């Protein structure tokens, strides 16, 4: 099942440039494909999946014969590899290993307890028992001398991925047969596949629109049909290297290994929720092959030839952070801090990519504890978390509460009443808005004057004042020397990391949030990992793009989420644009103002 894919050098450089562009403000198209689902957030986070539960041998030593293996598969607790012209077996529970038989094959797969080997040079396919006894052999017409990029056995068919010039092909052969039954062309970027269900395999292909994401296809070997199943996103720092993948039938998920430019990450893509999450991290590897049995995900690595594993019933210490749009400028700093935190604490931070934010809202409101920390961007507005009390008061966390209170900016931006509901990120401030030339600034000032989201009040339910604002704009489309409102103001836009009050890992999550705070404030200097920036002296320095800002006073400073919650600014701006299309008719302007006010009132007070 080993199908290592490495991007060409030029593509890696291009990817790095794209990532830096993304982190400096541009957005890439990386929202995961999804299906409508009212299922739980992520199948792999469920705790009610039953396993046989066994533990691999502690400090399992991989025999020297496994060196430079070209492929491997798993049956039960035994790993089978093709290495140096022979097939070897290693029992991961007992540590026993043996050489089964010699072969000219370089590809191996297993199904229903039978080993299948393929020799691309001769086109021969052979089947063996687990003890190494040959069951059958045949030469498949037209498969000799091909460049084989993948070989998988399903219930009744064998699927081969071959490279034909610049193209990729999927070929299916019936078990015991000697001819190819189906031939399907696949995207030029296809590079990896793994067994799925019955006679299907999963095929992984590059997403031409986003180098950190791959497209998942299902190929039915019996019918020859190829269907797209969605996109797998592996995080902001993913390099586009996907080492290997396998299907886990218990969790109904795809487990895969990728590289995030700091270390290798074992990830999981739930086929139920269409969401990705991290399972654990490893030091940087040259490559990896993955297989799964019961509760154990086995990883054989190249270079050092070691056996590593992930145990679902006893996972490493971790916390889970939920995102909606992890590739955005707002979350680049979050990803960078997460990477540094993992390196400094030896703790995994699972980043769950939420393709269905509404499902996450439902889970959080219901008190679900799967998620420890929420990144509000694209999922929940800060006001929604505050009004539904879906947050933990950070002021009660020893150390962190004092740090927030001692900083003028965070004391202002993090406070709801007497409590601190979150830590800001993605911070952008627009100062002295009264001095700008924007003709729409009266709309902002109107919102500041009339909307009190935390107390659920809207002071212009009739729309009378909004009518006067619209009338002023119609009469002064380019602004006026005497503005409609006369008060100074600056706006502050920010999203937040919010601690789920239902999290089962409050102490560990609090430790991460304090580390996050210290990184954003500059107290902790980040290591140069992931997407760094070249400094003038040629040194690579990992920087915070949007750190905490310095405020001497919060007078006349207004938080954007307070003045424009639930899309109220969208309603008000729409009224402004519609008013500009009229001839200033009083009746039309009053109608627009009244309808906009009705919508805003409904959003805030009902």
Keywords:
single chain, 606 residues, alpha+beta, Neuraminidase, 3 domains, six-stranded mixed β-sheet, four-stranded antiparallel β-sheet, elongated
Question: What does this molecule look like?
Answer:
The chain is about 20% helix and about 35% strand. The chain is of the alpha+beta class and about 600 residues long. It folds into three domains: about 55-310, 6 Propeller (Neuraminidase); about 345-425 and about 495-530, no CATH class; about 435-485 and about 565-605, no CATH class. A hairpin with a 4-residue loop joins β17 (about 240-250) and β18. The longest helix has 20 residues, at about 585-605. It starts with 8 loop residues before the first helix and ends with a helix.
